[in-house]
Amino acid sequence: MRNTSPSSPAARPAEGVDRLWGTSVGEDTAFLLARANAITLAAASAAVGEFGLKVRSYSVLALAVSGERPNQRELSEFLRLDPSQIVALIDELEKRGLVRREPDAGDRRVNVVVATDEGREVYARAREATERAEAQCFSALDVEDRDRLKTILRTLAAAPGASAG
Amino acid sequence: MRNTSPSSPAARPAEGVDRLWGTSVGEDTAFLLARANAITLAAASAAVGEFGLKVRSYSVLALAVSGERPNQRELSEFLRLDPSQIVALIDELEKRGLVRREPDAGDRRVNVVVATDEGREVYARAREATERAEAQCFSALDVEDRDRLKTILRTLAAAPGASAG
Predict the structure, then answer these.
(1) In sequence order, which residues have a C-beta less than 8 Å from that of residue B143 and are 6 or more positions away?
(2) What pTM was computed for the model?
(3) Domains in chain A, start-ordered, CATH in brackets?
(4) Which one of A24, A25, A99, B86 has the largest count of C-beta atoms within 10 Å of its C-beta?
């Protein structure tokens, strides 16, 4: 375990800013999560930016492509964004011809969001780019650790209270 | 592995918004990291908020308490915040009497940040609160998975390129 420490003398000398990895902050899982999130978010932003998307609009597009026909409330809840933010993201994607709103078959007062053919195509290419970016971000991990990380994060997401805050 | 899935039928029926966990978005590690970060950040904010701190000022205070005598450039680099943000955070903590700037013994043109006695005391209590909040956030994980998560995140943080973006 010690050898994987970022402040391990073998990897980097514990001088300069690296010595701060030995403090309580460097041992704090919440801090480490924030750090990992910042790294992957920057990489994903750059990847989807090539397609004129932001990470948030990419997520909405991916859910529109999924075939699950999410409505605006569901998108808001799943992506933890305000309904007004979701409306703005859908508007933006609709204007570009990547998604369209359709009445829900079960309740025609409710609109669901579905991808257009062009939306599917842009998504497929953006997804390839995000997968490359993600592979780069996680290249320090072996396959087992990548799978374990995903499993642990899914457990956290499913935990009671995970939707709070 | 399947049983830990958030959309596992045993845990929740895959209807309503939960069916979206079966999409590519719900399988995306970067998305799951963002979700976990949002949950722990909200919990940590609430915990340190009781002491008049924000997560960022708490991190600066923790590093001031560590005894490592970080200077402003090191705080900026380690916490990935702009130097101007770091200056504002130190100013705020100094005004409250929790930290003070001292000339670095090695280079007296450079100031380092150290905690006052009161800063140590506030930090100790805020740390207890964040540890309780963190324990709550990670209560869905067994001890082995918590350790594994931390180890994986430290590996990511130490990876070449982790400071980019």
Answers:
(1) none
(2) 0.82
(3) 53-158 (1.10.10.10)
(4) A99
